[in-house]
Amino acid sequence: MSNNVIDQRGGDWLPQSSAHTGHWLRHLIRTTDESKPLHPVLSSFQDLIEDDSKLYMLATAMFDEIPDKAPYNEDPVTIFHSSSSGRA
Fold first, then answer.
1. Coil, strand or helix: which one is 24?
2. Which of 5, 39, 58, 88 is at a distance of 20 to 30 A from 20, taking alpha carbons?
3. What span, in angstroms and rounded, lies between the C-alpha atoms of 46 and 24?
């Protein structure tokens, strides 16, 4: 993947350094414990979507519409890991 895709900052709200974003993302993944219960608000939201067939269909369609091309088909963890280790 070329660096120009990694270094793009949509709307200038991302940090200047993709290495900084990669560090944050790796830290977030490391500290996320999948065995923890969801926050009650998120659990309620999950129940709402899963219990309403129309909302479930729309939520599924949202992910189905993600293009199967770069950069959308890339794992952001892999992209940031590669850019921060100099293997971009």
1. helix
2. 39
3. 26
